[in-house]
Amino acid sequence: MEILVCVRRVPDTSENEIALNAAGNDIERDDLVYSINEWDNYAVEEALQIAARVGGSVTVVTVGGEDDEEILRREMAMGATHGVLISDGAFAGSDARGIATILRAFVQKGKYDLILTGVQAEDGGALVGGMLAAMLDYPFASLVNSIEVLDGKTLKISREIAGGNKEVNQIDLPCVLSIQTGINEPRYVGMRGIRQVASIPIPTLGVSELNLDPQLVGLAAAKVQRVDYFTPALGKGAEMLQGSREEIVDKLFELVAAKGGLK
Amino acid sequence: MVEGIRSPAESTYWLIQGRMLFLSIHLLGLAGFSYIVAKRLRPLLRGQADVRFDRPVQRLGKVFQFWLGQWRHPRYPGAGILHILVFAGFLLLATRAFSLILGFSDNFFGATLVGHIYEMVREYATTIVFACMVVLAVRRLAFKPERYAVPAKYGKGHTADAVFLLALIAILMLADSVFEASKGAAQAQLGHPAEFLAFLSLPQILENLLAAVPLAGLQRLYLGSYLVHDLTFFFLLCYRPFGIQFHVETSLFSIFFAKLDRGTLKPVRWQVSDQQLDQVKSFGVKTFDDFTWKHMLDFYSCADCGRCSDNCPANAVGRPLSPRFLTIKARDYCFEHYPVLGKASNGVALVGSIYSEDEIWSCTTCGACEQECPLLIEYIDKIVDLRRGLVDECNVPQSLQKPLKALESRGNPYGKMEKKKADWTKSKEFQPDCRVKILDGSSPADTLYFVDSVTSYDDRMQAIAQATAKILDRLGVNFGILGAAEKDSGHEVRRFGEETLFMALRDHNVEAIKASGVQHIVTADPHAYNALKHDYKDVPPVEHISQVIAREVKAGNVTFQRADENKVYTYHDPCYLGRHNDVYDDPRDVLDAIPGMNRVEMARSRDRSFCCGGGGLMLFYEPKEEERIGVKRVQMAVEAGANVIVTACPFCMVNVEDAIKVAGLEGKMTAIDLTELVEKQMVCPRKSEVAVQGG
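Structure tokens for the assembled complex are given below, as produced in the milestone run.
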């Protein structure tokens, strides 16, 4: 099975202190460290496990710049067969629809049975997967937390439903699935693994290679534009507990007990 | 030759001439033994390289101390003394065995004075070894020491095999004695001058018992016992390589080739430089052949005495790790896949077949097992090699992946910003009292205080950093820190098998240390201390803060105010300060220099100290265990009658403070770092004040 996983590089929320920039339209990006979007990492692991079970190859693709090659290498160190960087000045400022348009062009150049994305990106809005499926006219399922290959044409998948329930579906290939965290336990990638794939070439594709109409992508085509970015002021519902760690824990205990949370 | 009684060589056994029969037994026995040993050497020849032929004088010293001197045996007095007796007996009887093999049927030394003395010594040795076998068998069968028990998950018990081997040795001793006794009794009956048999030795007792047996019966006993002795001897020789008694042959080599440098780790591959490592296809131990030949030899040498697991903190709290079975399982694997008869069939991944992942990640690398093993068997290097193998297969527990990733991108396991590394120097209470230089080239210093991650970033442990800085300041040391340029020492990164990441951290730190131009390094973290001392190359000499304080105390440069009379202190030895680096006395000397200090020792202290639960990445790992290691340790402090545990390691502090809470001992037990206590008790003026007063 030929599997494509769309991945994205994001600032790592566990290793950064996110602060707004002076202009107030974005976060302060100096001194940030980046990693692969967590959901995408689960998607790659799932793709690798499927390929190991039924055969086939795994390609990882990202739309971005030179710096994003780093996460492609990381996923190739995990075992992805190919990495592709889609990069062009014309793509700057694309909205989710623009990204989906670019990815559609890439998918149509190849032949993929299964396309995986993460459910959402840490700095995104869970948009691209569904849009890509619609543009390709492929079936789509979101929040997928298990995949079983039934035959060459169908998958049995389960989806996470609010309240902790699960829904099981059959879905025809080719299809697009957005993968939920917890579907598997992603393998570890160390520096040595990354070094071992350092010399494998990663092709960079742009507007011309993808036969894309530049009018459909980039800032000019974007119909959604970010106009503001801020940390909401604390509302009345939130109470910040003050004091030492022990005091905070004690107060929290009291509060939870008072609301009947501890018996 | 004794008149009137035929020697075995001159007799016929079932129509076969004795000389021919025994020559055949000897040749067959030796051929069998040689063949089996050759087969046992086969995996060693396929194992990885290991550098063990260097420093022969030091190695011989080890042989004298630990093999001939049986140095570690008395640590378990009962079993230890019995072993020393049996070992000494075997050494004395070995000359007899050699004379047997070489074809002499009697005394190696002949009828000289030396010969007579040797005879007497030998008769006593036989008696003592025989008595020991009886005691050991009774011990095994009736008293059943707990450490010999085999938990169900590790298979059947080993008692039957142990008793069988004891019985074989007992038969050997008995046959030898009957041989001597029947000869002596026959001589007496024939009126020859009776050969002197050592008083109250087994041969002498038997001789008295046999006095009334007719001469023909004595002749049969004489010949029969020789045959039994001979057959048992060669059976035992060929049987030993199949079980725990192989250590009789291999222990000498295991000890000669033992690891000489404590605190160090074996390289990924011996004789492969860091630069060449990228060309190494596979890291660590994945299949049996990935072990070094010395580590395979260790598997053969293990005597199944259980002392390692008896001291292992992971084993004590029910983690799925027992060093004893780490070895036993590898030996069983080796015997099965490198059989004496049949083809070798190696290639199975060890983790997933004989070992579980949890087993390999459960070790705290505290070194208690290695400290105890009478045969100097190594465990930490094997565990780390197995972890290297897992890391190389991308197989790392989820709980460790985030901290490892953060170490890669931020240089610390918490993912904190580099620029906040020196924030502990800027607190309102601390900064006016003690200014800490950042060694970024603006102002030089003689000494670097290497803080390391936990002490820099953890709210609680920052107090240790501040106490350490104040002590250095009060002692007039011109010191500074690297601040944002300091990355994690990588000590646990390396011990968790992530060699490549460790090398990156190390190289970064070595550069930063060199650029700082310091001549000395001080740290309050024993893990950083061990890394800088053993894992790093070409950095200035490093000391633990307790060594610095002890030196100043000795020189009379420190005065302390009286200790709180209501407190009973006990010192907990951090593994990487004590066991791995032999720093036991300095922290104790410092404590004892405080007037009014009421200090007690825990039952397990110094080189038998019980790990707190492990530092570095072990804080992130979620082991399967019945109880926390730290809780056990805190209870030991209670048993010692202490109400303050003094540690000298930030990780010990994390674990001990947590354990105090888990054990419900809050208010009854507290923990304090040596630096915190010293800083609190110290009354010497600040050097800057001295300068002002002097000027």
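The interface with chain A takes residues 278, 283, 391-392, 394-396, 398, 400-402, 404-406, 408-410, 415-417, 419, 459, 498-501, 504 of chain B (CB under 8 Å). Residues 11-252 of chain B form one domain. Further analysis is deferred to the final report.
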